[in-house]
């Protein structure tokens, strides 16, 4: 039985697999080669922690307000959600009215989460 015109066969993916294997092989080769050929000098100064060229002062275990972390996590969460809107906008006409209703549902749920975050006061800085 011959495959139809729109049906993919496993051999269609062979070039992708070869390219992936070549890229992975190059990365492994480069890491091993630099490990073997690179200098292996250690010193007290080299082992010290530096941040942007400024010498560290104090303890790294200083407590930090969770508000910083919550803001960062929420930014990533809502940023990733907005990324889903771009492909939808590009194919807006192809999705038709059903696609519009699905995106309306998506935005409604996104806004519900956003208003929940505001109601809980996570973004309030005091």
Key descriptive features of the protein:
single chain, 126 residues, mainly alpha, Methane Monooxygenase Hydroxylase, Chain G, domain 1, two-stranded antiparallel sheet, 5 helices, 3% strand, flat
Explain the overall architecture:
With 126 residues, the protein is mostly helical. It contains five helices and two strands. It has a domain of 84 residues: NADH:ubiquinone/plastoquinone oxidoreductase, chain 3 (Methane Monooxygenase Hydroxylase, Chain G, domain 1, Up-down Bundle), CATH 1.20.58. The chain has a two-stranded antiparallel ribbon with strand order 1-2. The N and C termini lie far apart (71 Å). Helix content is 64%, strand content 3%. A hairpin with a 2-residue loop joins strand 1 and strand 2. The chain is flat and about 65 Å long.
Secondary structure layout:
Elements: H1 14-37, H2 44-47, E1 50-51, E2 54-55, H3 66-83, H4 85-90, H5 92-120
EC number: 7.1.1.-
Subcellular location: Cell membrane; Membrane
Protein name: NADH-quinone oxidoreductase subunit A
Q: CATH homologous superfamily name of the domain at 10-37 and 65-120? A: NADH:ubiquinone/plastoquinone oxidoreductase, chain 3
**Total strand count, please?**
2
Q: Give the overall silhouette.
A: flat
What's the rounded overall pLDDT mean? 85
Order of helices and strands: HHEEHHH
Question: Can you summarize the main beta sheet?
Answer: 2 strands, antiparallel
Gyration radius, rounded: 26 Å
GO cellular component, one term: plasma membrane
Protein name: NADH-quinone oxidoreductase subunit A
Main location: membrane
Enzyme class: translocase
């Amino acid at each position: 039985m011959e495959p139809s015109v729109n049906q993919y066969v496993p051999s269609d993916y062979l070039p992708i697999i070869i390219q992936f294997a070549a890229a992975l092989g190059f990365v492994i080769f480069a890491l091993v080669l630099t490990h073997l050929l690179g200098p292996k000098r250690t010193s007290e100064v080299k082992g010290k922690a530096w941040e942007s060229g400024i010498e560290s002062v104090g303890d790294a275990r200083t407590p930090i307000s969770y508000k910083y972390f919550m803001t960062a996590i929420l930014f990533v969460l809502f940023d990733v959600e907005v990324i889903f809107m771009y492909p939808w906008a590009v194919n807006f006409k192809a999705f038709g009215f059903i696609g519009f209703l699905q995106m309306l549902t998506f935005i409604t749920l996104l806004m519900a989460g956003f208003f929940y975050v505001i109601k809980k006061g996570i973004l309030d800085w005091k």
